[in-house]
Amino acid sequence: MSFLSNFISGLSLGSIYALIALGYTMVYGIAKMLNFAHGDVIMVGAFTVIVVVNSLGLPGVVGILASVLICVLMGVTIERIAYKPLRSSPPLSVLITAIGVSYFLQSLALLIFGSTQKSFPKVFNVAPVHLGELTIKGESIETLAVTTIIMVGLTLFINKTKMGKAMRAVSEDREAAELMGISVNRTITVTFAIGSALAAVAGLFFGATYGFIGPYSGAMPGIKAFVAAVFGGIGSIPGAMLGGILLGIIENLAKAYISTELSDAIVFGVLVLVLLVKPTGLLGKKINEKV
Amino acid sequence: MAVKPSERIMVPLPSHSIVPIEDMHKAPVLQTHQLGIDFGGLTAVNNLNLAIGPTEICGLIGPNGAGKTTVFNLLTNVYQPTRGTILLDGYDTKGKSCDQVSKMGIARTFQNIRLFGKMTVMDNVKIGMHNQLHTSFASSVTHAFGYKKAEKQAYDKAKELLDFFGMADLRHHEAGSLPYGAQRRLEIIRALATNPKILLLDEPAAGMNPSETAELMENIRRIRDEFQIAIMLIEHDMNLVMGICEGICVLNYGEIIAKGTPDEIKANPKVIEAYLGKKADK
Questions:
Q1: Planar angle of CA B257, B258, B264, nearest 5 degrees
Q2: Would the CB atoms of B112 and A290 count as touching at under 8 Å?
Q3: What is the pTM for the complete model shown?
Q4: pLDDT at A128 exceeding the cut of 60
């Protein structure tokens, strides 16, 4: 029974990674850049909930909506100010800019909230479920329920809607898409908006699961979600979902059965192994360069 | 992003233009004036003056490396010209992005096929119709009022286009899995789906056998007659060029060395020299 409960909390942690990984993978697929500031958006989202619920005393729902709104605005603004002017620059310049944005957000949070971690309010009140000896935590249930809905919705959006199709077209061949009348700038803006909204939701669950948020709280889940995106095949949306969930399960089982200290090493070790066997990640497609 | 309205310049084609009779005295759909581009110190295209009638089929030929594809990239604003102007349907395209120029009425195919290989045939055509499909972000998420209707219209129009080329049965296939000839045809259909006023075809017959080329020629004529648009094509297959083009421009070292009807071009000594080299001095 303890295996099953570890498995379920791993699944719930994994869905948080998956939500963040989706942001990495979508931005990579469409804007062809690694947005290393993505992890810090989670932290900003979580702090927004803390401010709205704890300091302003508003209900949790308002906190969630404010968090999503602030993250979307911030994601789109970062793209406009920091990345758009570098659209035709070498990838390395964009990468370094993204790292710069990441430090900027962390320092800004440090300046505003200080270095001590703030406690995260209880936004949901889902009671734990008891199935015989097995107990499933309320946080796990709400995380799994919401991420499932989001992933189904996102898959439908990408495959069925006009904007979703435009995003796939831009990710396959930006120039050809542009010549078919698709505005690449608009598509990239929408991508950043969706990625940041998902990060806000991830921040909410991350805060709910761990209880405390500090200025550097986004860094580690950000890195792990990036690993998850690479693990699943960066650029692939189902890959990010699968990679995130597997990573969460591996991490939690490693913590439970092997060693808490070694769990991160095991996670990254598995990544190395997967990439040795399949360099494009689990669901990544081989890129055929035509010469 | 709306295309900023600029002044429309409509000057009729000069009387000596080689265009179909219907196009006489009409304003050209595409016109360039002293168009040129430099890459670093290298002048790739220079002094390009073109005027293409609204339903003309025009050939752009020249030896390898003459700058033909560069001309297409200039006309679609993939490259910003160093000098000169382009008027598309009377409007200056200066400073417009590729997607805006596409909205203004120009569409193209590519020398090496650039379909969205992982998407279905139908979705490729729908991507071409992106700007005609008016479903708002909100309604496409909620499947609310108007969405289904617009989606149905798009589907019907896409199917009609595919039918025109006998490809409707393949609509659920992945574009990348189609045979070569069908991919070439699909690229033309996708370009037509943008509802262009002028269609640019970059080596449409490349890699085709004679019977496929004959079918392509028939299709190009049908496109012009049915959609009443201008077509400009780059092609090395001289049977195709001489067989369907009303006017031909010959490009060499980035400049036009000859313009004329197929018969004039065939007899032009400059053209023969560009293709075969100069006769050795005695």
A1: 155
A2: yes
A3: 0.86
A4: yes
